[in-house]
Amino acid sequence: MKKNHGFTLIELLLYMGILSILLFIITNVFVSILDVQLESQATSGVIQDSQFIISRLGYDIKRTENITTPANPGDISNILNLSIDGINYIYQLNNGDLELNDEISTNKLNSFETNVSNLSFQRTGNATEGATIKLNFTLTSKTQRNNIYETKTIQTTLGLRKNE
Known about the structure:
Number of helices: 1
Mean pLDDT: 87
Structural class: alpha+beta
Helix content: 25-40%
Strand order of the largest sheet: 1-3-4-5-6
Radius of gyration: 28 Å
Largest sheet: 5 strands, antiparallel
Low-confidence stretches: none
Order of helices and strands: HEEEEEEEEE
Strand content: 35-45%
Oligomer: single chain
């Protein structure tokens, strides 16, 4: 009886078919993992930036001596000008970035992964000590997932701390 030391054509085709199916499944799993990672990065970037911007604005508004712009209750502006310890702090948009200028330097408040748009500050209240600022802005991630950008619209009100 003669022994064959090899594979038949059918065995080879079966092996190649199983290997192709396994490679296809592994590739799909890998692509799905990368897709979820991109979504997670976009979402966390938008959330972190929104929290930082609100915290920074809240910190400065509580310390402010005077809100120069918007000047009167009901006024809406895309610039917020605060006076803290004799220094003007100006919040404004510049090419999709929220910047803080404190007469010494200009600092970008959002990360490189996000854009800020639709920024507005509305002054409410009737006096400096009772004044509040209604803040509106939209953060959009620069990371795209399935041709969709992660977007978050923020609307909050921040108030001055009363001097007693």
